[in-house]
Amino acid sequence: MKLGPFICAAILFGTLSAAAQDNGLGDDFQTGIDDILVEPLDESGIGFGGDGLSLEDLQNFPGSGFQQELKDITTETQVPVSSASGANLRALDKLTGEVQDLTVVSGQPVVFGRISVLLGDCRYPKDNRSGDAFAYLIVHAQGIEDPVFSGWMVASSPALNAMDHARYDIWPLTCNIS
C-alpha cells in the first residue's frame, strides 16, 4: 500500500486549514499598535480631569458661541384665551366618505355615525374671536366603554393631537361665540 498520496493530502489539508484560520494579522501586516502612546488625563481640574466639569465652568466657558446661540432662541408667549359655549366640528366617515359639519354645545353629546362627541370646552384668543380654536373633545364609539379619544385638538393643527380611529375622523373648525 502506498502512503504517499495520503501524506500529500494530509499536508495539503493542514496547510489549507491553517490558512483559513489566519485572520490577516500575521507578521507581514503592520498595525502600528506598538507605536500608540497612552498618557494619563490632564489633572488640572478644568474640564473632565480632576473635579470634573461644573455648571459654573459651563457658564464661564471661553468662546461662548453656544451661549449666544441659546440667547438667540425665540420663545412663545401664552395667548390669553376665552371660553366659548360651543364649537363647530367637522366629522369624516372614512368608510362611506361622508363629511358633516357638527355644531356642538358644551356638555351636550352629538352623534355622528357610530360615535358620540362631547365638547368639554372650546377656547379662542381673546383679541381674535375668529382666530384659532382649541377644543377639548371626548369621543365614544358604540360598544366601547372607554373613550376612543379624550384631549385637546387645535383647529390650525388638527394632526397635532388627532383621534386615531379606523373609521372616523373629527377635528375642530371654530368656537361658537354667542
From TrEMBL:
Signal peptide range: 1-20
InterPro entries (alphabetical): DUF2155 (IPR019225)
One Pfam family hit: DUF2155
Alphabetic keyword roster: Signal
Full protein name: Uncharacterized protein DUF2155
Species for this entry: Pacificibacter maritimus
